[in-house]
Known about the structure:
By secondary structure, this protein is α/β, with parallel strands linked by helices. The protein has helices spanning about 5-25, 45-60, 75-80, 90-95, 100-105, 125-130, 140-150, 170-175, 195-210, 230-240, 255-260, 265-270, 275-285; strands at about 30, 35-40, 65-70, 105, 115, 160, 180-185, 215-220, 295. The protein has one domain: Rossmann fold. Helices cover about 40% and strands about 15% of the residues. The strands form two sheets. It has a seven-stranded mixed sheet with strand order 4-5-3-6-2-7-8, sandwiched between helices. It has a two-stranded antiparallel sheet with strand order 1-9. Helix 2 (about 45-60) packs across helix 13 (about 275-285) and helix 7 (about 140-150) runs parallel beside helix 8. Magnesium ion (MG) binds near residues 48, 71, 75 and 162.
Amino acid sequence: MSADSTPLADELVAVSARRERLRGATWTLPSTTRIVTIANQKGGVGKTTTTVNLAAVLAAHGARVLVIDLDPQGNASTALGVPHHERISGSYEVLLGESAISDVVQQSPEASGLWCLPATINLAGAEIELVAQERREFRLKEALTAYLSTEEAQGFHYIFVDTPPSLGILTINAFAAANEVLIPIQCEYYALEGLSQLLDTIERIRAHVNPLLQRKTIALTMYDQRTNLAQQVAQDVQEHFPQEVLATIIPRSVRISEAPSYGQSVITYDPGSPGALSYAEAALEFAGRFGGQHGS
Ligand code: ATP
Ligand code: MG
């Protein structure tokens, strides 16, 4: 068998074709700020990984991006290389009205146009502390509206809100502030469990709290092409949500899981890896969704 007909050679050809397509692609920037909440009450499905990697790719292609970390675990802050120890002010102080977003946002070392509103462990108390506050679902929305009217916040193309694995008041705040939802779904058993509850919650928020919340995107994550199960889950989601699901499927990849421990996205940690390539393709697809956008 000649070398150029082996599966490995075929794969190399396919990968270089994908790279070529990305190189020739036109990246569009939205004409108004896309505020995207990344949510799934199921834990460990790739919410944070998808948030930081999409944000990093879009920032690398000229977008101005803010990541709001609304998870007390602070994983997005870590992955973006932004300090978030207890004494640092962040999303907790913003939700409680003690700080303005402009006072506590930090630039990520990842890219010049990438900013992060970090989460500290203090945020773990917010669910309870917010119960007694007025308009507790709208704390983030109000802070964000104030921020976006300042001069320094002009020109943000994307704001991504990473949420904890629950449908509590933090996630509700994220839904109330957003005009889009991005739902990562892990290509594993039980992947679809809880999805109808999540979609019902989003629908209720749309009906009663935030009529802007109409646009939904689904991203399939941690796909292992060797398993029938992963293929089955991907196929089910594609059949049920043909409009919502991104064609790009994020593979399971060790490089993706290693990157956060270096305070990096996979895009900077290992730009040549298949995981970086997939997140670049997913970001390109995401940037092209919902029309109404102007070329950069
Ligand atoms: P939580 O609900 O706890 O916030 P999450 O939904 O944000 O979790 P992640 O933290 O993004 O999920 O991912 C869960 C774990 O899986 C992490 O250790 C992450 O590094 C790893 N992981 C995410 N995506 C991939 C991937 N494509 N390949 C390999 N590992 C991945
Ligand atoms: Mg997370």
